[in-house]
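Quick bug: 3-oxoacyl-[acyl-carrier protein] reductase output formatted oddly.
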Amino acid sequence: MSRSVLVTGGNRGIGLAIARELSAGGDAVAVTYRSGQPPEGLFGVRCDVTSSEDVDAAFAKVEAEQGPVEVLVANAGITKDTLLAIMSEDAFTSVLDTNLTGSYRVAKRAVKGMMRKRHGRIVLVSSVVGLLGSAGQANYAASKAGLVGFARSLARELGSRGITVNVVAPGFVDTDMTAALSEDQQKAIKGAIPLGRTARPEEIAKAVAFLAGEDAGYITGAVIPVDGGLGMGH
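Here's what came back:
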């Protein structure tokens, strides 16, 4: 049966790959986007996850189009990298507001319908940086590490209602962001990855699709690394 799915930040990169994967599996998939245009073939709603009003309005549009959200993928995120000594308070709080508090906003809105139905899937997209740490990314690492504690608390709250909550932690992925790095930077990154390469967005999407599917019905509170071995042991 086709499910109502919402992927935040789903108009490019990892989010778009996730949306395409779930759509190919037969789900009705909506994506949120903050700028640009919605991707072709998917229902798009403009939404800034730092705004509770935007989130409520986006969910209302999705519910009217395809019914209450049964699968939520919280993927929207930003970076504002700089060393702590020169990091502004806004650079810290704005990253947490989007990456961590934004996930709180969309999850809170989604669980109301899931609890009534006594079934649902929530997948939060974290990062290997949230496990390993990264110089110049204290704000980003804190936000992505926070998703783990958030997910595991929700898993305990919502398990009795048939709702699973899990985390996917990607490593370095072939996106516009990594393509902008210099050849030397890319070489150094790949040298630290046991598999010796970056991930394709579709590989992250496959892991998300598994956690969102029926085969993962007995998995909750888990952190699934898709990082080529970079973060192993964490």
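Actually, after a second look the formatting is fine. The domain at 4-170+201-226 is CATH 3.40.50.720 (Rossmann fold). Closing.
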